[in-house]
Amino acid sequence: MPPPGVSGPVTRLHASGPVTDDEVLALAPRGSFGFNIEIKSDPMRPLLTPAPSRYAELLTAAIRAHGLAARVIVQSFDYRVLDAVRQLAPALPNGMD
Predict the structure, then answer these.
(1) C-alpha to C-alpha distance for 27 and 86, rounded to whole angstroms
(2) 33 — phi, psi (to 5°)?
(3) How far apart are the first and last CA of the chain?
(4) How many CB atoms are located within 10 Å of the residue 34 CB?
(5) How far from chain centre, in Å, is Cα 25?
(6) For the chain, what is the mean pLDDT?
(7) For the residues 44-56, what does the mean pLDDT come to?
(8) CA distance 74 to 10
(9) pTM, full prediction
(10) Burial 68-88 (b: 16+ CB within 10 A, else e)
(11) Paired strand residues for 74
């Protein structure tokens, strides 16, 4: 039985690597649930992730492409990424609000 707000059978995502934003956001038609997206970024390890502005561009583009701005909140311990998201999508709820 699916959880509340989810229609159809529940299946697990199996991936040989990290699941992409697009793969997760593509699940939206299966229910009325929200997405709490936590961006993993470490200012002390800049080579492990895109620059904050690029990270924000990629994420906001994926959210817009799926039409999910009303169902998403973005959070991160790295305020630089949240600030970049706010600059690109000021109405998008984030962990700084």
Answers:
(1) 24
(2) -75, 160
(3) 35
(4) 14
(5) 8
(6) 85
(7) 91
(8) 24
(9) 0.78
(10) beebbebbbebebbbebbbee
(11) 37, 94
